[in-house]
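Following up on my earlier message about 5-O-phosphono-beta-D-ribofuranosylamine. Here are the inputs again, as you asked, copied directly from the submission form:
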Amino acid sequence: MPASPDPSDPPGCVQWPLPQPWPPQTSELRLGVMASGEGSNFEALVAACREGPLRGRVLQLVVNNPGCGAQGRAERLGIPCELVDHRQHRSREQLDGALIEAFAPCGVDLVVMAGWMRIVSPRLISAFPSRLINIHPSLLPSFPGLDAVGQALAAGVTLSGCTAHLVNTDLDGGPILAQATVPVLPGDDRNSLAARIHRQEHRLLPLAVALAAARLRDRTAAAADPSPPAGPPSG
Ligand code: GRF
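Thanks, got it. Here's what our run produced:
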């Protein structure tokens, strides 16, 4: 089901791949979410599950900042929320061990980093191979890392956007699932550009989750059927 275009979007706001058609969604996805801040992407994901178009359920939110906006949203939305405070852990590996434990009881299919402002270690990545998704406010591979919106403004680009990608050990460098573009308008500052990008993130992230699930299904099917793909007749 496509996300409906928003008439208040300026020209140039486009999702890639275009949202029609969504990949087939054969079963309900069990989702875990990690958030550090406001949690608007977390809420968009919950809404996409509850009201469509994503066939899934957010079973567990984990936050690292006590009292962050995402925690309040979880309470309002009735989603279990666990605090895994990075300040209580000596290393990234130890923090990631606590994250793995937080998601283990609900047996999640995919984990979405929806504004998780910590670098994750190989321990978390290998616990969720091709199952860990991140959303980043730039058109990767441009402007990875912190303050992507400020980096884009400083570079003077006229087109920016957001990228949902699988997480690997390269910072913001994993395989791209989907992107959305937004124009950079004259007079934009960090706030106005970030707000325009945010609106696209909220639409893009549910699509990216469906795409990641479809990739996993295709890989599992290919592994179960090792026959080589049909080629042209020989001779
Ligand atoms: C988003 O812009 C996301 O791209 C970045 O952090 C921000 C989180 O926003 N990684 P929110 O907490 O979902 O509102």
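One observation from looking it over: The chain has one domain: 29-222. Hope that helps, and feel free to reply on this thread.
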